[in-house]
Amino acid sequence: MRRKTDNPISKSAGQSPLFGSHLSIAGGMTNALDEAARLGLDSVQVFTKNQQQWKTRPLADDEVGAWRARVAELGWTGAQTVSHASYLINLASPDDVLWGKSIDLMTVEIERCEALGIAFLVHHPGAFTTSTREAGLARIIDAYAELFRRTRGFATVSCLENTVGSGSNLGGKFEELGTLRAGIIGRTGQQQRIGFCIDTCHAHASGYDLSTAESAAAAIEELDAACGLRNIRVLHLNDSKAPCGSRRDRHEHIGKGTIGRAGFAAVVNHAGLRDRPMIMETPKGTTPGGTPLDTLNLRKLRQLAGLRSGERTRGGVRAS
Ligand SMILES: [Zn+2]
Ligand SMILES: [Zn+2]
Questions:
Q1: Chain segment 119-146, per-residue pLDDT in tens
Q2: DSSP letters of 141-155?
Q3: How many angstroms separate the Cα of 110 from the Cα of each of 2, 32, 159, 243, 297?
């Protein structure tokens, strides 16, 4: 458990959003955890390897040990750590060579998460390119049968991320994600190993209007009906530069895009989505005064979640 149960103030244990950010592992994997601590975050997302390369050096034992030790030092559990798989992977590809390479790399991604104790591995479902939507979905299910055969007994949960649904990219509709997960479970029987990651920018750009409290609540209801909110294991909190339904993937700072504050308030305060890692993939950098942009976005999210600015959710001192 991530909160001390002997702390009488921590009545809200399991209730607060675990705000986090996608952070760099440049210079060493634990640098992402150090940066998360500096920013006062309660979760983190990383690439566990250079995400633009097929080849990867195996994790060294001391890297694994250092990561696990730092997670423990922060008082975190693996459920506060998320990995994003390489964008090179296309489990829906009709091309046997690319498909085989994708399964091999996805196997490595799962193995790395398992070694590091990272609970969730997020990946985009894939693109059917020259085949058909149905063939693409079948291809992903076949890929998962092989992945789960190779990694039998592993705990890491693979999370299918919704996309803006451009071109032949699968996963633009919640129903499609739901169908995919059902197909994977039907084939493998491994329902505990497959969940979802919902990205607010992608949802909005693919046509689920998140810009008002009412429309966002309706979209979350649709999501529940198609996927089951309990299966949403990770959220990506990004505002959108592009309009609802544009099918363009352009991340914007929280509250500054076409979603806006009302939509984020609806998401972060939804009773069915609490206590999930909620990862900002918003543009990085600092203000001219040196304040990290993640800090500004975090402050907005905490305000929307009813937490005072700068207040940590993890120590059980949540404002009420
Ligand atoms: Zn995302
Ligand atoms: Zn995106």
A1: 999 999 999 999 999 999 999 999 999 9
A2: HHHHHHHHHHTTT--
A3: 23, 19, 11, 34, 30
Place of tokens 């634990």: 30
Neighbours of ion ligand 2 (CB under 5 A): 249
pTM for the full predicted model: 0.92
199 CA → ligand 1 middle, Å = 5
The pLDDT tens digits of the residues spanning 271-315 come to 999 899 999 999 999 999 999 999 999 999 999 999 765 555 554
Question: Domains of the chain, with CATH numbers?
Answer: 17-304 (3.20.20.150)
Which ligand has its closest atom nearest to the C-alpha of 239? Answer: 2
Task: Tell me the CA–centroid distance for residue 236 and ligand 1, in Å.
Answer: 5
Q: What is the pLDDT of residue 272?
A: 96
Nearest-Å Rg of the Cα atoms of the chain is 19
Give the distance between the most distant pair of CA atoms in the chain: 58
